[in-house]
Amino acid sequence: MTQENPPTGRNDRGDGSRARSTQTLGFHRYGFPSGLWRWIAAHPPPGVGRIRWRSPLRGPWLTSVFGLVLLITLPVVIVTGLLSYSAYSPQFGQAMPAHVGWFRLPDFDWPTNPSWLYRLTQGLHVGLGLILIPVVIAKLWSVIPRLFAWPPARSTAQLLERLSLLMLVGGILFEIVTGVLNIQYDYIFGFDFYTAHYWGAWVFLIGFIVHIAFKIPRMASSLKTMSLRAVARTRTVDTHPEPTDTDGLVAADPSPATISRRGALGVVGGGAVLIAALTVGQTIGGVTRQFAILLPRGRDSGSGPNDFQINRTARAAGIDPATTGSNWTLTVHGNRSAPIKLDRATLAGMPQHTARLPIACVEGWSTTQTWTGVRLRDLARMAGTPSPHRTRVTSLERVGSFNQATLQANQIHDSDALLALQVNGQDLSLDHGFPARIIIPALPGVHNTKWVTMIEFEDAL
Q1: How many Cα atoms are found within 13 Å in the side-chain-facing hemisphere of 181?
Q2: Quick one: 114 and 161 in the same domain?
Q3: Residue 71 neighbours by CB distance under 10 Å
Q4: Which residue in 29, 224, 398, 407 has a CA-CA distance of 20 to 30 Å to 325?
Q5: Among 220, 255, 282, which residue terminates a domain?
């Protein structure tokens, strides 16, 4: 019978004297007062030190397997999240938070090509973040004895490692909880989600970098102690604890195994696959969307013939239907001495352009539709500003933080950047932005402004 690891002898921990002497010497070596050390060691918080962790599965190898998965995948979640911040054009002050000091990312013009770029990056950020939840939970379970170890540190290096662990665990739990709630519910927080999520990401990122600097050598050596092939062949009855480790992950008095390591990996992997099946439809779309029950945002299609999802109805945005009726006009500012007033009939009589473009929202859902309207660059030329440096778009929206958006030069000049009047061959419904809305390739959904009332084209200063 194949065994993952044969039972091995244990270090002498009978009365704890050996451990205490080693810890005391460690503190002397790093300059900690031995009296303070003894007092801290003798006064643990209630319950700490009395919990018996008895699972025979815990150990450096299993922890390192989960750690390796997260080491490969979490950077993708981190990078795509930071790219989402950049896509909101922080150079115009419309990314939140607007003022981040040293944590400001380099300014660059978010590209419009390929048109599905933001759909990809934000879909990866939200989708992969959800898929990794079972792995994160399993990783925390595997190291839980260390989280309750007392005293928390025996040296300066260990203290730094513990602080990084606090940032890592606290940061990732905060990001997961707030992220999941944001994609499930609409504005339920008593604080600004975007600001909190941004700072939480940096707390997690710093903890992540420091933690892997400490743990990569240990992880690499631990992964060599067992063969994944051997683990995959080992039955529950043949599953034994790993040899005693210096980190204290291996149970001193383990219980008999009730599941093999193969089974544990299968449960975690199966959970990740299940979450993927219940979420990926919001990004892929089509028939798979009906199975995306864990991403309910974007399920409201609004009223009217435009049968695809929206985040907010006209009523929720505070739109007065009287302002979108026959008296509605679009005001266009540019280098001409006087602004241009265009009603919807005039806009419909101008050269029309049709493009099939996605809308992708920060919550992770997206949809691709066929849009028809006037090119923004044609409106810029009409306003006497053929090469605008930036363009400010204002909405009739009265409720919310996104009644205005500033667009980059490359977004205005893109041949598919439109002031859309129709979608899928029909006039926009009120909930989808009637009388006119912005649609630009690869632009975050919230900046594809609906219910447009004014466009201001600006030259470079």
Answers
A1: 16
A2: yes
A3: 15
A4: 407
A5: 282
